[in-house]
């Protein structure tokens, strides 16, 4: 999208940097207030505890103007995708005050996967359309073949759940009850979903009210001018920092483990051309789209590029349309990073993570002080479902686990965190066991999983879970379970992750990377181990004190230490 | 002089701030008030307290032997955490979970920043020990505590020379048996090691936050203990009859003994004292709903007071670590007199959070400051007296302020004054955003409140902040620069109790809740006895945390009870109270959805007799003359010739129409054109803003 302009140059000139900052501040306030309101009033754990949601305002041209501080990078893609769909499907004259649009489909409605339900409500000021309040929440289930709607083993989008094209859930403030009934009938645990929808709707209403208050202080004309300025100044700022990348051609390739239904070793290939701050990201040599659910819609690929650039060059740059406009991205239809119907996409976050790693890998020589070793490269997902023997109710426990974050130019990586495009919290053990008939037996770091280096990679996580008093079903999605997270500048690779099923007798069975429908009996345990991450720099240059700490903390074995760092002198200071 | 009278009875409030230690001393029978400020001594804050007390004693204004109570707001805990001054700490936790304190919530502090990390845990991994035991969600014992492992544990804790140890077991809020047993043995065998149990520090659901709070608590125990010992010894020499009360983060004093056991409760001690002071002023002026704005040199603290009570939050970060405890809901924003204006990379002007601090400070202080600060903006707009604050002890160089703002002005093509007005506009917007977070985002409309600015810089910005919030009235306390110390003098003795009990909210389940309420009442009674609080001064307040079944965040709903016979209302009334709270907080409620109770909370207070109205200063008049006139820039581009008054010249009944400047010892108040300032009987200044 090009930066079109909603306001006249004269009005834009009137906007000095001070007024603009004060308006931006007010807009950020609205986005953050909606974020907090949605989090606090939602029903599901995934939103309340893990904050898997985002809120934003887009102007009437569909440009993203402001996003809540804690919004997730991948949700940028869905929001702009939704706006593009909305504006191409409807004439502005068809949009009325009190309408609430809802969508989730990646192929026809700009979404990135079905569980992310997008809502948008227009803001009218004295009959004039000012823009749209948007929010996204990841619903813990949207129907489909497997509980949680995230499991592997599916080969077309229909299996992944209810596809919602862009439709109006409210018309002029009136809930379309028939539609809502249909939507709820097609998902598991509809009561909880309904609560989450209500929370999303309430957040929309709140945002509309707040935007009207702002419009009461500044005219629509002035606000439109502010939107123009916000977008163009951010784009300018981003283009300025892009100049820090030296001219050159940078290539990198990494390989996805598998798609869960038979295709393995799927390459992502990138060539970046930088010339005077003009950047082109060419992903066209990437593998074709796959039958399994790790495909990325194009707008999600774009979000991954934008995340990587922002993280490497200017973490404080505001999230708005301006950062989406700053570089050229080339993809080929029908490939893994630009999938088309009927590609399934549920586990697309794993691929997004890998796109980020690939960009960082490509730019290592260009930005040696900024890049990091490959991260756990996954969004390791574990879903447990069954019938709670205490209540005879169906339950669904869904979680994504963090892992290693790669070694950095001046310090070690981080152990056991969400990386890059995701930053969702874990669920407290005390919440899991209270709400679900499950017992968490242990939760800790995976020894030796961080790649050695001058600055070592972070460790992966291990969680051991048992069903209590019943049999349950496990579905999972892993990545970097066969292809390890690599190091940079001589840093070593970190360990892969794995899912294991331990039966009553203690026999350990290694599960697939993307297992589906695994029956876990009451005396069995399910072990989730997430990948570590790559190190930074030659291990031989690691400070002896840090090597000693690796050993004394028990994070690394003596064998690992001697293999990578040689003999550790006990008394050196 | 009062000193000669044996019946005199002095109460002293001491607030230790980053720059100054403030004293507010008060004698009831003679209504005498003495205030004092002395530079803080960060290495040992007790030194400034002792020096200040000695000054008050030597100057003859406060007979130290007649001090019966010393109420203390302290930053020792927070500073120790920020500087990581504590020693080696051990953790004992459930087998399988020693990494839990390090994993936390598995998140990064900033999503897009590859280099930002949370601070490493206060206990190293090799100092976190596991023990075989397991309790389940209902409090049932799944694996009994293996006491045979404790011997080895004791040896390990000895071997690492730990000064303190946190005992953090899963589900200990539901069943504290194992923690208590471990605590008992460790306390007996390691008498020199401070022990904190998570079930004692904060027996609440969500293990990471509970463990983190407990670890912080135990980490602080040795630090606070040595500080308290030092303070107690010195005080025993100066004021042997003084009872010491330490202010807690939730507002309200606790004994030194409790502070030693629960030092983490002092994390927000100072700011909470500000809220107590504000409540006192609000009561005198009969303004129940207040937004406080405490603006100092580097930051501004804002809080919401409703019906004379400070809003509480139950979780916040302290030095990068989550703490789950009741704390006054204070939001801090990097907006102070020293906040620096700068151009961001996209050309927008920002103010703060970087601050010039006390050194080099704003350019106009002539201590080497070269960056344009908020104080410089106020100086060029004529809003500050050139002879400066602190009765002329610090004069201002306005030319220096102009010089540092000029480059900013040139870049925008503005005059220096318009640039300065813009800087103040931005700092106002930042404070307004912070206030919205604690009012609007919690479901409270700030327009129903009165704004109370204090701290050195608060009254200067009150008009702008109030207008942006739609607030029409501002109340400026008599001593805005010393309100925290004053708050300490009026603070009640207070203790918070909590029990987690999850149950659906039905008439049948109320019996169990009533049993818990009875336990809490008994606990409160024991506390009253222990603190020797007279029966007629005892107060209890009850609240119930509730939520819809399936929700994961609770709403704290105050429950009215008969204090003489505390009984829970019936389920229907509890539902109604919850619906009202849900409506107020989130704008909706579903009357058909099932509700559950999560925590029962009780606050016990020992009320102290309240402060009387301060005496009118000598020479004050209801029609005072200005001490000078000077041009001041308010909102317009042109300056207006403005009279300047001294606060000490203003008597009750005095009415001043804006434009005016009112100067006092450590603060400056602006009365904008069209605004009207009145002095009320309690000497507070009430500002009615022009519509």
Question: Can you offer a commentary on this structure?
Answer:
- The complex is a heterodimer of chains A (573) and B (691).
- Chain A is α+β, with helices and mostly antiparallel strands.
- Helices cover 30% and strands 23% of the residues of chain A.
- Chain A has 2 domains: 9-237, no CATH class; 372-573, no CATH class.
- In chain A, a hairpin with a 5-residue loop joins β19 and β20.
- Chain B is of the alpha+beta class.
- In chain B, β34 and β35 (685-688) form a beta hairpin.
- Chains A and B meet through α2, α6, α7, α8 and β15 of A and α3, α12 and α16 of B.
Topology, please?
The complex is a heterodimer of chains A (573) and B (691).
Chain A lengths: L8 H6 L2 H25 L3 H4 L4 E7 L4 E4 L5 H17 L10 E4 L12 E10 L2 E11 L28 E5 L2 E2 L1 H9 L4 H28 L2 H23 L5 E11 L5 E12 L2 E5 L15 H16 L7 H4 L3 E3 L17 H15 L18 E7 L6 E7 L2 E3 L8 E4 L11 H7 L2 E8 L15 E7 L4 E6 L20 E5 L5 E3 L7 E3 L4 E5 L14 H9 L5 H8 L8
Parallel strand pairs in A: 10-11
Antiparallel strand pairs in A: 1-2, 1-5, 3-4, 3-6, 4-5, 6-7, 8-9, 9-10, 12-13, 12-18, 14-15, 16-17, 17-22, 18-21, 19-20, 19-22
Helix pairs in contact in A: 2-6, 4-8, 8-10
Chain B lengths: L9 E7 L3 E8 L4 E8 L5 H14 L8 E7 L2 H7 L6 E6 L5 H4 L24 E4 L2 E2 L5 E3 L6 H10 L4 E5 L8 H13 L4 E4 H4 L5 H32 L4 E5 L5 E3 H6 L7 H17 L4 E6 L4 E7 L2 E2 L1 E2 L2 E3 L2 E3 L3 E2 L2 E3 L5 E5 L5 E7 L18 H7 L17 H15 L3 H23 L11 E5 L3 H12 L3 E4 L6 H8 L2 E12 L5 H21 L7 E11 L6 E5 L11 H16 L8 E12 L21 E5 L7 E7 L8 E3 L2 E5 L2 E5 L4 E4 L5 E4 L3
Parallel strand pairs in B: 1-4, 4-11, 5-6, 5-9, 9-10, 13-23, 30-32
Antiparallel strand pairs in B: 1-2, 2-3, 7-8, 11-12, 13-14, 14-15, 14-20, 16-19, 17-18, 21-22, 24-35, 25-28, 26-27, 26-28, 29-30, 31-34, 32-33, 34-35
Helix pairs in contact in B: 1-7, 2-7, 9-14, 10-11, 10-12, 11-12, 12-13
Shape of chain A: globular
The best one-word shape of chain B is globular
Helix content of chain A: 25-40%
Number of helices in the DSSP assignment of chain B:
16
Structure class of chain A: alpha+beta
User: Which strand order do you get reading across the main beta sheet of chain B?
Assistant: 3-2-1-4-11-12
Summed up, the helix count of chain A is 13
**CATH fold name of the largest domain in chain B, please?**
Dna Topoisomerase Vi A Subunit, Chain: A, domain 2
The termini of chain A sit apart by 58 Å
**Low-pLDDT regions of chain A:** none
Using DSSP, what is the number of strands of chain B? 35
- Described by its quaternary structure, the protein is heterodimer
Rg of chain A, Å, rounded: 24 Å
- Give the terminus-to-terminus CA distance of chain B: 48 Å
* Topology, number of strands of chain A: 22
Approximately what portion of the residues of chain A adopt beta-strand conformation?
A: 15-25%
Main β-sheet description of chain B:
6 strands, mixed
Biggest interface pair, counts: A-B, 87 and 67 residues
Query: Which stretches of chain B of 5+ consecutive residues score pLDDT under 50?
Result: 1-6
């Amino acid at each position: 999208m090009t930066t079109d302009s909603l306001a006249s140059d004269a009005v834009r000139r009137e906007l000095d940097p001070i007024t603009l900052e004060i308006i931006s501040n007010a807009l950020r306030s609205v986005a953050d207030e909606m974020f907090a309101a949605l989090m606090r009033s939602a029903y599901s754990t995934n939103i309340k505890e893990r904050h898997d949601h985002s809120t934003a305002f887009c102007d009437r041209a569909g440009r993203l103007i402001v996003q809540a501080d804690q919004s997730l990078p991948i949700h940028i893609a869905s929001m702009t995708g939704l706006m593009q769909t909305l504006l191409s499907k409807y004439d502005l004259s068809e949009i009325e005050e009190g309408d609430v649009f809802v969508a989730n489909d990646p192929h026809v409605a700009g979404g990135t996967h079905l569980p992310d339900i997008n809502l948008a409500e227009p803001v009218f000021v004295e009959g004039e359309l000012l823009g749209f309040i948007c929010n996204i929440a990841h619903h813990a289930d949207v129907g489909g073949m497997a509980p949680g709607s995230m499991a592997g083993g599916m080969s077309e989008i229909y299996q992944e759940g209810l596809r919602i094209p862009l439709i109006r859930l409210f018309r002029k403030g009136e809930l379309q009850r028939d539609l809502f009934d249909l939507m709820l009938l097609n998902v598991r645990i509809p009561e909880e979903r309904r609560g989450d929808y209500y929370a999303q709707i309430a957040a929309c209403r709140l945002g509309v009210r707040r935007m009207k208050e702002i419009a009461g202080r500044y005219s629509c004309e002035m606000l439109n001018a502010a939107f123009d300025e916000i977008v163009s100044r951010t784009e300018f700022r981003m283009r300025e920092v892009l100049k820090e990348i030296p001219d050159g051609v940078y290539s990198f390739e990494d390989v996805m483990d598998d798609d869960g239904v038979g295709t393995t070793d799927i390459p992502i290939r990138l060539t970046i051309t930088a010339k005077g701050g003009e950047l082109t990201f060419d992903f066209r040599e990437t593998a074709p789209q796959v039958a399994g659910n790790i495909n990325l819609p194009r707008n999600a690929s774009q979000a991954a590029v934008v995340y990587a650039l922002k993280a490497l060059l200017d973490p404080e740059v505001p999230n708005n349309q301006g950062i989406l406009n700053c570089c050229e991205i080339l993809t080929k239809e029908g490939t893994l990073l630009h999938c088309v119907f009927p590609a399934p996409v549920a586990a697309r976050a794993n691929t997004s993570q890998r796109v980020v790693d690939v960009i960082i890998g490509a730019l290592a020589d260009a930005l040696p002080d900024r890049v990091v070793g490959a991260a756990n490269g996954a969004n390791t997902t574990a879903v447990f479902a069954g019938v709670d023997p205490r209540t005879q109710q169906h339950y669904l426990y869904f979680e994504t686990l963090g892992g290693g974050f790669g070694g950095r130019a001046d310090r070690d990586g981080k152990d056991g965190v969400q990386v890059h495009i995701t930053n969702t919290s874990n669920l407290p053990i005390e919440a899991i066991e209270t709400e679900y008939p499950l017992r968490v037996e242990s939760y800790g770091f995976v020894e030796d999983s961080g790649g050695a280096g001058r600055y070592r990679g972070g460790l992966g996580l291990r969680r051991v879970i048992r069903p209590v008093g019943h049999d349950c079903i496990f579905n999972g999605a892993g990545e970097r379970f066969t292809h390890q997270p690599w190091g940079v500048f001589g840093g070593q690779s970190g360990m892969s992750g794995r899912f294991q099923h331990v039966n009553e007798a203690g026999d350990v069975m290694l599960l697939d990377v993307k297992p589906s429908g695994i029956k876990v009996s009451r005396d069995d345990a399910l072990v989730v181990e997430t990948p570590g991450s790559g190190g930074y720099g030659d291990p031989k240059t690691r400070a002896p004190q840090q090597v000693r700490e690796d050993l004394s903390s028990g994070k690394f074995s003596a064998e690992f230490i001697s293999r990578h760092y040689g003999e550790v002198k006990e008394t050196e200071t | 002089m009062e000193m000669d009278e044996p019946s005199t009875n002095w109460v002293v409030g001491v607030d230790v701030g980053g720059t100054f230690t403030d004293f507010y001393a008060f004698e009831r029978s003679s209504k005498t008030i003495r205030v004092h400020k002395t530079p803080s001594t960060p290495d040992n804050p007790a030194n400034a307290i002792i020096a200040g007390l000695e000054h008050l004693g030597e100057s003859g204004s406060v007979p130290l032997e007649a001090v019966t109570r010393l109420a203390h707001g302290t930053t020792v805990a927070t500073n120790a955490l920020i500087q990581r001054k504590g020693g080696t700490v051990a953790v004992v936790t459930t087998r399988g979970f020693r990494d839990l304190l390090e994993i936390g919530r598995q998140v990064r502090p900033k999503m897009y920043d590859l280099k930002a990390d949370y601070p490493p845990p206060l206990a190293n991994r090799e100092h976190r020990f596991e023990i075989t035991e397991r309790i389940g969600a209902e409090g049932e014992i799944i694996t009994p505590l293996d006491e045979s492992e404790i011997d080895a544990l004791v040896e390990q804790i000895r071997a690492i020379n730990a000064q303190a140890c946190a005992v953090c077991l899963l589900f200990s809020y539901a069943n504290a048996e194992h923690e208590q047993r471990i605590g008992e043995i460790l306390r007996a065998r390691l008498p020199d090691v401070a022990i904190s149990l998570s079930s004692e520090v904060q027996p609440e659901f969500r293990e990471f936050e509970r463990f983190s709070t407990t670890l912080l608590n135990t980490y602080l125990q040795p630090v606070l203990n040595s500080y308290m010992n030092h303070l107690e010894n010195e005080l025993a020499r100066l004021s042997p009859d003084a009872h010491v009360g330490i202010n807690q983060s939730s507002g309200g004093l606790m004994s030194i003994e409790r502070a030693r056991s629960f030092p983490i409760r002092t994390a927000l001690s100072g700011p909470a004292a500000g809220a107590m002071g504000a409540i006192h002023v609000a009561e005198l002026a009969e303004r129940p709903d207040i937004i406080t704005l405490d603006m100092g040199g580097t930051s501004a603290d804002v809080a919401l007071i409703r019906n004379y009570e400070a809003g509480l939050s139950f979780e916040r970060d302290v030095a990068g670590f989550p703490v789950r405890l009741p704390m006054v809901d204070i939001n801090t924003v990097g907006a102070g007199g020293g906040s620096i204006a700068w151009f961001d990379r996209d050309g927008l002007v920002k103010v703060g959070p970087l601050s010039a601090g006390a050194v080099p400070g704003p350019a106009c202080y002539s201590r080497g400051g070269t960056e344009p600060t908020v104080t410089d903006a106020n100086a060029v707009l004529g809003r500050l007296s050139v002879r400066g604050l602190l009765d002329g002890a610090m004069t201002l160089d306005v030319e220096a302020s102009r010089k540092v703002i000029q480059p900013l002005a040139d870049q925008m093509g503005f005059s220096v004054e318009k640039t300065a007005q813009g800087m103040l506009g931005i700092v106002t917007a930042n404070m307004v955003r912070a206030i919205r977070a604690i009012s609007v985002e919690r479901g409270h409309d700030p327009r129903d409140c009165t704004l109370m600015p204090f701290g050195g810089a608060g009254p200067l910005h009150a008009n702008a902040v109030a207008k942006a919030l739609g607030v029409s009235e501002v109340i400026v306390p008599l001593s805005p620069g010393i309100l925290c110390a004053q708050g300490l003098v009026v603070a009640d003795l207070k203790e918070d109790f909590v029990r987690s009990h999850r149950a659906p909210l039905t008439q049948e389940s109320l019996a169990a809740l009533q049993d818990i309420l009875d336990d809490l009442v008994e606990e409160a009674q024991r506390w009253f006895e222990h603190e020797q609080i007279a029966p007629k001064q005892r107060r209890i307040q009850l609240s119930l945390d509730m939520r819809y079944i399936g929700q994961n965040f609770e709403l704290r709903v105050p429950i009215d009870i008969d204090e003489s016979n505390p009984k829970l209302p019936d389920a229907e009334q509890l539902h109604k109270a919850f619906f009202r709270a849900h409506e107020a907080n989130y704008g909706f409620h579903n009357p058909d959805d099932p509700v559950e109770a999560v925590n029962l909370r009780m606050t016990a207070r020992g009320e102290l007799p309240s402060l009387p109205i301060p005496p009118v200063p000598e020479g004050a008049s209801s029609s005072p003359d200005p001490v000078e006139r000077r041009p001041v820039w308010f909102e317009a581009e042109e300056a207006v010739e403005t009279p300047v008054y001294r606060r000490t010249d203003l008597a009750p009944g005095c009415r001043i129409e804006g434009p005016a400047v009112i100067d006092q010892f450590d603060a400056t108040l602006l009365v904008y054109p069209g605004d009207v300032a009145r002095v009320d009987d309690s000497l507070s200044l009430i500002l009615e803003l022009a519509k």
